[in-house]
Amino acid sequence: MKLIIYLVLASMLLTGCGGEELRDLHDFVKNAGADMRGKIEPPPEVKPYEPFPYNNEKNLPDPFKPRKLESHSGDVAGINQPDADRPKEALEEFPLEGLKMVGYLYQNKVGYAVIRAPDGKLHRVKAGNHIGLNFGLIKEVNDTSVIIKEMVQESTGDWTERMSSLQLLE
């Protein structure tokens, strides 16, 4: 008997929830996008593949062999070549990315930067010292940075200058 009463009450509750209160909301959601039509561009036309016969009759270079571009100067060593016979300084065995400027000193009217190397050692450098793997020459030392001129070899064999800097860590 109790079971029947519970079933009757539950069915009356469910019947009460299905009224016309939300009918307008359901109609709005159903018809909201009915008059909206999107415009989609057609895909681009695909051009057919045309194979290229690669033979050596036309004197073309082999694309699978590395080749060196011709140097502008004709010099075998290249233009602006740095002195490779110069004795290396301590900080020339580390890349610039691994070096950190951690301090600045001013002694006897000369500015020095304090550089921490990746091995943890501290080095005192000034303008004229060499630094980094790319024949870097320190051009200027000030209280916030070290300005470096590096020499980088291009694919033609010529050497070009590149300016870099180390900033003081805060």
What's this model, at a glance?
Helices cover 15% and strands 26% of the residues.
Task: Describe it.
The chain is built from 2 helices and 7 strands. A 4-stranded antiparallel beta sheet has the order 4-5-6-7, with no helix packed on it. Strands 1-2-3 form a 3-stranded antiparallel beta sheet, with no helix packed on it. It is an alpha+beta fold. The protein has one domain (42-170): SH3 type barrels, CATH 2.30.30.830.
The name of the CATH topology is SH3 type barrels
**Strand arrangement, largest sheet?**
4-5-6-7
Number of helices: 2
CATH architecture: Roll
Helix content: 10-25%
The rough form would be described as elongated
CATH C-level: Mainly Beta
> What's the end-to-end separation, in Å?
82 Å
Please report which band the strand proportion falls in: under 5%, 5-15%, 15-25%, 25-35%, 35-45% or over 45%. 25-35%
Report on the biggest sheet.
4 strands, antiparallel
Record keyword descriptors for this entry:
alpha+beta, three-stranded antiparallel β-sheet, SH3 type barrels, about 170 residues, elongated
Produce the secondary structure layout.
Layout: H1 2-17, H2 23-31, E1 100-107, E2 110-116, E3 122-125, E4 130-131, E5 136-141, E6 145-153, E7 159-167
